[in-house]
Amino acid sequence: MQRTRIKICGLTRPEDVAAAVSAGADALGFVFYPKSPRFVTAAQAAAMMSAVPPFVSTVGLFVNASPAEVAAVTHIAPVSQLQFHGDETAQQCAALAASANRPFLRVFRVRPDTRGADLLEYENEYRAASPLFSGLLLDTFVDAYGGAGKVFDWSIVPKDIAPRVVLSGGLSVQNATDAVVRVRPYAVDISSGVEQQKGIKDAHKIAAFVQAVRVADATSESENHHERST
Ligand SMILES: O=C(O)c1ccccc1NCC(=O)[C@H](O)[C@H](O)COP(=O)(O)O
């Protein structure tokens, strides 16, 4: 059975890290963008990461950060990978990742006029720019940079790219099963949909979200089985 990977983003409290790990999250996101309500310092993130068990990834999220800012964080907080969420070019992402010696996720902020071909072209550009490119994370374009809880039109995601992308943007306990069954992404990423208030996660919502994704995995498996046997 395909097991859709799950990233919980925007963690600011040790108890929220514990809730995400105990619910079965595969990756934990820490926001190093000072204007975010979910901003954490490198020292705060490092303290939270010290309680993360083996085989759970930690992701450091940056928006238009300088090489010095990324280096200052990665010297202190042992993130396993980077996420570039701003207007960085492919060359800038490649250089930031190389200097931090970490793989990176590139966020594509989907607009109403985005077409599937745009995603494939963007992915090719990043793949060509760096061996440290680990994949695209699809989020909804909003004027602010992210964590806004807005959904985009999932039908634009081409079937041939879906198994490699991280789907995000307005996911919730209510829409997670539908999103995963329809798109069949490699992974999903959620922030505001599992919060009580900005930056404060809700352990029950995290557990319910993980459960909703697992229901989708089981549904997709039974659909695959049905397709194979007819
Ligand atoms: O969380 C923030 O405040 C934030 C600030 C600047 C850039 C990105 C930010 N968050 C990104 C995420 O948490 C997620 O990758 C994604 O945007 C999904 O968020 P949501 O729609 O709230 O689930």
TrEMBL record:
Keywords, comma-separated and alphabetical: Amino-acid biosynthesis, Aromatic amino acid biosynthesis, Isomerase, Tryptophan biosynthesis
All copies of domain N-(5'phosphoribosyl) anthranilate isomerase (PRAI), residue ranges: 6-212
GO function terms (MF aspect): phosphoribosylanthranilate isomerase activity
Reaction catalysis annotation: N-(5-phospho-beta-D-ribosyl)anthranilate = 1-(2-carboxyphenylamino)-1-deoxy-D-ribulose 5-phosphate
Record InterPro entries: Aldolase_TIM (IPR013785), PRAI_dom (IPR001240), RibuloseP-bd_barrel (IPR011060), TrpF_fam (IPR044643)
One Pfam family linked to the record: PRAI
E.C. number: 5.3.1.24
Pathway: Amino-acid biosynthesis; L-tryptophan biosynthesis; L-tryptophan from chorismate: step 3/5
HAMAP family named in the record: PRAI
Protein's name according to its UniProt entry: N-(5'-phosphoribosyl)anthranilate isomerase
Annotated source species: Massilia agrisoli
